[in-house]
């Protein structure tokens, strides 16, 4: 696939076939994602691979519980717009995807968000090149339960940045409208 095709074919996929994604493919995607640029070549990203729908559901339920608690404490929380879905016990923030890759890194690292976001972008494009669909699910990043974090390999000093669902798309939505770029100035 040409680079331009990757850019134009990447979509946020929230509906998947039942076909599983092998751990081998997931590890290939992760390996390619680490080609992303990163601050001072620090390569601080860490990965948790979840290829179990039961565990994905546990992570979803944990995040939903914590976000709802946040909304209860602060009704002005940005997640308030998702409250009805989050309080629905049947709602899975990961859309019942067959696989989940959680990208995390040291919470105190200055460039954590940028480095992990670049890595996530590379992972998503590597998936598109293989006919897979992905979606970054920020609502799945609020995992606080110590036992669940341990099961995911997440130590206390790690912060989840990018939970990415991965699977074979049941359908691919059309591209959404993009505004023209706002170019402040062209010099030279």
Describe the protein:
- With 188 residues, the chain is α+β, with helices and mostly antiparallel strands.
- It has a single domain (3-167), classed as NADH Oxidase (3-Layer(aba) Sandwich).
- It contains 6 helices and 4 strands; from the N terminus they run ααβααβαβαβ.
- It has helices at residues 3-9, 23-33, 53-73, 83-86, 112-129, 146-151, and strands at 46-50, 99-106, 133-136, 158-167.
- It has a 4-stranded antiparallel β-sheet.
- α2 (23-33) packs across α5 (112-129).
- The longest helix has 21 residues, at 53-73.
- It is globular, with a radius of gyration of 17 Å.
- The protein starts with a helix and ends in a 21-residue tail after the last strand.
Properties at a glance:
188 residues, alpha+beta, NADH Oxidase, 4-stranded antiparallel beta sheet, 6 helices, 4 strands
Brief summary of the model shown:
This protein is an alpha+beta fold and 188 residues long. 36% of the residues lie in helices and 14% in strands.
CATH class: Alpha Beta
Percent range for β-strand residues:
5-15%
Percent of residues in helices comes to: 25-40%
- CATH-defined architecture: 3-Layer(aba) Sandwich
Largest sheet: 4 strands, antiparallel
Topology:
Blueprint: H1 3-9, H2 23-33, E1 46-50, H3 53-73, H4 83-86, E2 99-106, H5 112-129, E3 133-136, H6 146-151, E4 158-167
Helix pairs in contact: 2-5
């Amino acid at each position: 696939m040409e680079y331009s095709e990757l850019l134009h074919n990447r979509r946020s996929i929230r509906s998947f076939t039942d076909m599983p994604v092998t751990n081998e493919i997931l590890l290939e995607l992760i390996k390619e994602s680490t080609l992303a640029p990163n601050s001072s070549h620090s390569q601080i990203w860490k990965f948790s691979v979840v290829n179990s729908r039961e565990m994905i559901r546990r992570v979803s339920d944990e995040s939903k519980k914590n976000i709802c608690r946040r909304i209860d404490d602060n009704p002005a929380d940005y997640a308030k717009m998702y409250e009805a879905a989050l309080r629905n016990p049947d709602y899975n923030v990961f859309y019942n995807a067959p696989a989940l890759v959680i990208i995390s890194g040291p919470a105190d690292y200055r460039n954590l968000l940028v480095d992990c976001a670049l890595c996530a972008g590379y992972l998503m494009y590597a998936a598109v090149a293989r006919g897979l669909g992905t979606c970054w699910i920020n609502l799945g990043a609020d995992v606080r339960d110590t036992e669940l974090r341990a099961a995911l390999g997440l130590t206390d000093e790690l912060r989840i940045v990018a939970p990415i669902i991965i699977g074979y798309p049941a359908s691919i939505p059309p591209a959404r409208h993009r505004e023209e770029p706002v170019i402040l100035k062209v010099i030279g």
